[in-house]
Amino acid sequence: MQVGIDMGTVSGGAPAKLDIEELLATRLLVQGNSGSGKSHLLRRLLEQSAQWVQQVIIDPEGDFVTLADKYGHIVVDGDRTEAELIGIATRIRQHRVSCVLTLEGLDIEEQMRAAGTFLNGLFDADREYWYPVLVVVDEAQMFAPSVGGDVSEEVRKMSLGAMTNLMCRGRKRGLAGVIATQRLAKLAKNVAAEASNFLMGRTFLDIDMARAADLLGMDRRQAEMFRDLKRGNFVALGPALSRRPLPIVIGPVETSARSSSPKLMPLPDAPQDVEDLIFTPDPEEFTRPMVRRAPPAPRPTTDILAELSRSAPAAGPVPQEPGRPTQPELSPEEREERLNAVLSEIIDDPQAAYRTDAALYQDFLVRARMRRLPGPPMGMSEFRRRVAVSRAGVDKETAETEGWQTALELSVRVSDDLQGVFLMLAKAALLAEPCPSDMRIAKAYGTHSARRARRLLGYFEEQGLIVVHTDFGGKRIVAFPDLDVQTCPGAPDAPDAEPVARQDAAE
């Protein structure tokens, strides 16, 4: 059934239609600076489609709870345990009830944890409840940040993974993501890239205008137009909206947010006794509990160690103490050999797979200083890359092959936390080893969940990097079209053990 909802008007006064059925299959990205009318657009979309499709809104500021009065949405407070949120999300899908998950009053880390848990609950619902749902996430850059912030790595990874599942794999489960962000540059690229429909509003920074122009297929010189858009004006593109960039004006809404944009209002007439009014204390002030500001959070040890490692010696020759031997300078080859030795020590730890990248990086910096490795240490991104390559466990001969170099180039197309899993699978295919089991894939990702391992394979397949199939015995095979190789059959439920290459492959 094709349903076109009215989003407003285009040039000439014609109605701007949005095909809901097409939107469910192709997803939507909304971008606009604060005050551009982004929330107004989402409210118009939700109001117009409320009677046609189930809706779930992730609301960090509590602005959309007013939909409950007119359209019957259930308001879910995000200040709950993970088990409660998963249970509510499951029943939301089972009974096809629209809801608003309000995260108002929670700090950023609690908001990310609650949103990620709730989205995973929607995603993990049983197949019989995969009804179509419009999942709207406001301020998506909070839940899918392009870079790490002040939150823990565990929470960031969980929230980003939930958003990635929503936008990359949610369509098959009936979940249609509608994400809105103030800045495209702050939104993870692998999340934004999965949207096929775009509504771009006013923005001022060059990097955001350039990305908006690229997404709309416009010339970079046309990007300046995004500075001149008025409030409530957007440029639409996508199969559910228009095949060519189309300026539209968003129509009015029937409900309103609890918060609104500040407006000027005249100051009251100053009373005659204004000084007494201000400086005379209220008697109740002395009985109220004193609220003390929390001390600033201590700097992470990782940052301190990195700063110490970057400290350069003073210019000029350093006098040597009598009788103290001069530390010999290392050649680039010797330094690289020591770096590899440090990385091997870290990765050989059985618990290293379940430690965060930040903890491993801190351990690396300490070990590097203990061995007096000269020069600046590698950055966090390079460290993650080196760890991913080391965990793949390729020998020197394989590392020099053209196939492995191609695999390294392909791994750049996935996020840093997934490169280790991808390279492990590529190595198994290049050496004709059995396909790694679910538990071995999960361990490479740093989790104990076999279900999450299967999700990773599905994500790689949706990205066009691999093809997963089974043989007549039910064993799994992972093929790499770009490498023209595939793994040997392997049992998905096999225990976590290093694979043994086929005898004929070894010979």
CATH superfamily of the domain at 4-250: P-loop containing nucleotide triphosphate hydrolases
Estimate percent helicity: 25-40%
The assigned CATH architecture of the domain at 4-250 is 3-Layer(aba) Sandwich
The fold-level CATH name of the domain at 4-250 is: Rossmann fold
How many strand elements? 14
Strand order of the largest sheet: 2-1-11-10-9-3-8-7-4-6-5
Write down the oligomeric state. Answer: single chain
Low-confidence stretches: 308-319, 499-507
The main pleated sheet reads as: 11 strands, mixed
Mean pLDDT rating = 79
Figure out the total of helices: 20
CATH class of the domain at 4-250: Alpha Beta
C-alpha Rg, in Å?
27 Å
Termini Cα gap: 59 Å
Structural class: alpha/beta
Shape: globular
Strand percentage lies at 5-15%
Could you describe the 3D structure shown?
Among the domains are: 4-250, P-loop containing nucleotide triphosphate hydrolases (Rossmann fold, 3-Layer(aba) Sandwich), CATH 3.40.50; 401-506, Arc Repressor Mutant, subunit A (Orthogonal Bundle). 40% of the residues lie in helices and 14% in strands. The chain contains 20 helices and 14 strands. It has helices at 20-26, 38-49, 67-71, 82-95, 108-123, 140-143, 153-169, 189-192, 206-215, 274-279, 301-310, 332-347, 357-370, 380-392, 396-399, 402-411, 416-430, 438-445, 450-462, 503-506, and strands at 4-10, 15-19, 28-31, 54-59, 74-77, 99-102, 133-137, 175-181, 197-200, 233-238, 242-250, 467-470, 476-480, 485-486. Strand 12 and strand 13 form a beta hairpin. Residues 24-310 form the AAA+ ATPase domain. InterPro entries: AAA+_ATPase, ATPase_Atu1862_pred, HerA-like, HerA_central, P-loop_NTPase. This is AAA+ ATPase domain-containing protein.
